[in-house]
Design goal:
Number of strands: 24
Helix content: 25-40%
Radius of gyration: 40 Å
Mean pLDDT: 79
CATH class of the largest domain: Alpha Beta
Number of domains: 4
Low-confidence stretches: 1-7
Shape: elongated
CATH topology of the largest domain: Rossmann fold
Structural class: alpha+beta
Strand order of the largest sheet: 18-19-17-20-21-16-22-23-24
Number of helices: 19
CATH superfamily of the largest domain: P-loop containing nucleotide triphosphate hydrolases
């Protein structure tokens, strides 16, 4: 270690020695000429007690680093009170000049104190404070203001040729000269002869237990560089601390640092309560080692107050990149607990009279990562515990051996950590995919369908968008749709029932006969599809049906026939059926959004909902796609054990998702980017909702 010699450093014991020597000289002069160490006569008191003594105390002890506006206010107040005591025995003009000076300094210092530290807000007060700050601390220094009072006393009460005046002026001149001549620093360096001196760069102001320290630091310290420093505690032990950020507080600069761990090789020549720059830099590997992490981690911040088990608040380290959905973690009882950032805000804190602004991130708990699955953890981290993120987007976490049968939902945002789940093993618990147009839900549904087909599940898609046939052509889909003419005939017969005579008995008989024949044809086509081992994907297209009642009518027929077929093959695990419903609000609408004229349709929707409730027992699963939850049957949605939500903005959808995900994750939904989604349920290996980012695939464009 080769510490630099502190040419500007004055040892505390030297300052105390100068103060005692100065006081002793002043008392001796007073005893010699007045017969008392503390004269009571106002003419002597103004020179000895209220001028020389305060010059000595202020220079050596109170203001050896700098003068604050509050110091100037107190100095000017004491000087003014001293002047009031000699008003009747002083030259009037000289008295008013000095008293006006004291009054002026008091006023501008008081204004600075009143407008600093956020005590009074506003642009005008900020400008006033900046303009008066420098005059206040310069004119209010104890050496200057009490020297003015001292010289006033000499001028007013003593002859310049008198012996006492000579002693006083010589003493005052010598004492004032030792500081610019750097005699205190010279004495300090002589007292350290034979040992090396390390210059401190700051002094401890307060400890936010556990582990966060606040220092008053030198203005020129490169604190934001974030290099580890050494702090000596009052018990002589030394600790590594890591600078986080700094801010200005009145005339001081305050730095916040995090405690890392003990210094193994103790350094000599350090002063208790101070912080120092080491000659050798602690490498990042060593810093992460002290924090109990590897180089794959990056310190993001530390846990703040008002954290809970399910959601923590963390103060973000200055300059650290942060984003919605980012994976972070901290340790509780030696276990690594993972969280996902769900929101952020700015906040101000009163710190030693000034307001300090910083960023707060909110993160929802994912839990412990075991074999690729996030498992809930039942406690929260300590206050001020360090919080980490991945060092870069390419860094990886061990998530266990990959299961080829699992579906890859995507990666955690800002990482390449995959999020997987057993969709095939839980497909019959029903899944809902929500999101506005263009958010990526249909592309995601295509991936789920391909995965299901590859794993031996027969998939039937009810498509109202005419996208599925072209996009899934490589799977050789079987067309299970009814004939176009049949759909027109159905629409006409439904219209005849609505517009027929009272009760429309003849029209209803015609519709009944038509529907029985249609049901027979649909049942036959579905049975043929289920029996064909080579057929894995079936499409039911309803593009030409503008009558929503007809769409619901046909859907009910398909669903009823499917359920009957599934019941007959109950117990055969190879007979698994996944029904994907695009634009679910059209064929599974919420009854509250349907008009009075749709009374018959309400009964059909209720029947479809009941089929959805029973389907799980017979290996029939639903994949429901919708833009808004408000328009989809709540009976169907509430039976979906797994929810995948892309970006949604309407209050109804956010309210529904809040009941499923909780507030922390639901508030993320409106901020999701394209190809980002919140996933929750049996199909994902996480016991809490988790945000995933689906990798962009050029082939899907």
């Amino acid at each position: 270690m080769n510490p630099k010699v502190a040419d500007d450093y004055t040892k505390p014991m030297i300052r105390v020695f100068i103060m005692l020597a100065g006081l002793l000289c002043a008392l001796i002069i007073s005893w010699k000429f007045t017969g008392s160490p503390l004269p009571q006569d106002p003419q002597y008191a103004i020179v000895f007690q209220n001028a020389l003594l305060l010059i000595v105390l202020g220079s050596a002890i109170l203001e050896h680093f700098f003068t604050k506006p509050a110091d100037s206010m107190i100095n000017s107040l004491m000087a003014g009170i001293t002047m009031l005591g000699v008003y009747h025995v002083s030259p009037v003009l000289a008295w008013w000049v000095v008293f006006s000076y004291c009054l002026f300094v008091f006023l501008i210092s008081a204004i600075c104190v009143a407008t600093s530290g956020g005590r009074v807000s506003g642009e005008f007060t900020s400008v006033v404070n900046s303009r008066l700050y420098k005059p206040a601390i310069v004119l209010g220094r104890s050496r200057l203001i009490f020297s003015v009072v001292f010289l006033f006393g000499i001028y007013s009460f003593y002859s310049i040729q008198s012996e006492l005046a000579v002693y006083l002026i010589v003493f005052w001149g010598v004492f004032m000269a030792i500081w610019p001549l750097r005699i205190p620093q010279l004495l300090s360096s002589m007292s350290f002869r034979g040992q090396e001196i390390i210059q401190p760069i700051g002094k401890l102001l307060r400890l936010d237990n556990p582990g966060i320290l606040r220092f008053a630091i030198n203005q020129n310290t490169d604190w934001e560089r974030g290099k580890p420093l050494i702090y000596q505690r009052v018990d002589k032990s030394q600790q590594w601390v890591l600078p986080l950020y700094s801010h200005l507080n009145d005339e001081r600069r305050i730095g916040t640092a995090m405690l890392l761990g003990a210094v193994e090789n103790l350094k000599t020549g350090l002063v208790d309560g101070h912080i120092y720059e080491p000659s050798e830099l602690l490498e990042n590997d060593a810093v992460m080692g002290l924090l109990g992490e590897t180089t794959q981690a990056r310190l993001l911040g530390f846990v703040a107050e008002d954290s809970s088990i399910g959601r923590i608040r963390l103060e973000v380290k200055a300059g650290c990149p942060c984003a919605d959905g980012m994976l972070i973690w901290c340790k509780v009882d030696g276990k690594k607990i993972f969280y996902q950032i769900s929101a952020g805000t700015t906040i101000e804190e009163n710190l030693d009279g000034d307001k300090h602004g910083y960023q707060i991130a909110f993160a929802a708990q994912l839990g412990i990562l075991e074999n690729g699955e996030f498992i809930k953890f039942d406690w929260l981290p300590n206050m001020n515990a360090p919080v980490f993120s991945l060092a870069d987007n390419t860094a990886d976490l061990y998530v266990g051996e990959p299961n080829p049968n699992y579906f890859n939902f995507g990666n955690l945002p800002k990482s390449n950590v995959p999020v997987v789940g057993d969709f095939v093993g839980n497909f019959n618990f029903h899944t809902a995919v929500l999101g506005v147009t263009g958010s990526g839900k249909t592309e995601f549904a295509f991936d789920l369908i391909r995965h299901s087909v590859a794993c031996g599940i027969k998939v039937i898609c009810i498509d109202l968008t005419s996208q599925y046939k072209g996009r899934l052509a490589d799977l050789n889909p079987t067309d299970l749709s009814i004939q176009e003419q049949t759909s027109r005939d159905l629409s006409q017969k439904l219209f005849d029932v609505e517009t027929g005579t009272y009760g429309a008995p003849n029209e209803k008989k015609a519709l009944q006969a038509f529907s029985e024949q249609l049901r027979h044809d649909v049942d036959a086509s579905l049975r043929a599809f289920m029996a064909d081992e080579g057929a894995r994907l079936g499409l039911i297209q309803l593009p030409e049906i503008s009558n929503s009642q007809a769409s619901i009518f046909i859907t009910e027929i398909y669903m009823s026939c499917l359920l009957n077929i599934a019941k007959e093959s109950f117990g055969d695990e190879s007979k698994k059926i996944l029904v994907a419903v695009e634009e679910a609000h059209t064929i599974m609408p919420e009854s509250a959004t349907m008009g009075v004229s749709d009374f018959a349709s309400k009964g059909l929707v209720a029947k479809i909902s009941q089929i959805a409730l029973q389907g799980r027992k017979y290996n029939v699963g639903l994949l429901v796609l919708a833009q808004r939850t408000a328009n989809v049957s709540k009976t169907v949605l509430t039976q979906c054990n797994s929810i995948i939500s892309f970006a949604c903005y309407d209050d109804t959808s956010i309210g529904f998702l809040r009941n499923i995900f909780g507030s922390s994750c639901a508030e993320m939904v409106p901020n999701l980017k394209k190809l980002q989604a919140v996933v929750f349920g049996k199909i994902v290996k996480s016991e809490r909702p988790i945000v995933v980012e689906i990798p962009y695939d050029e082939n899907k464009v």
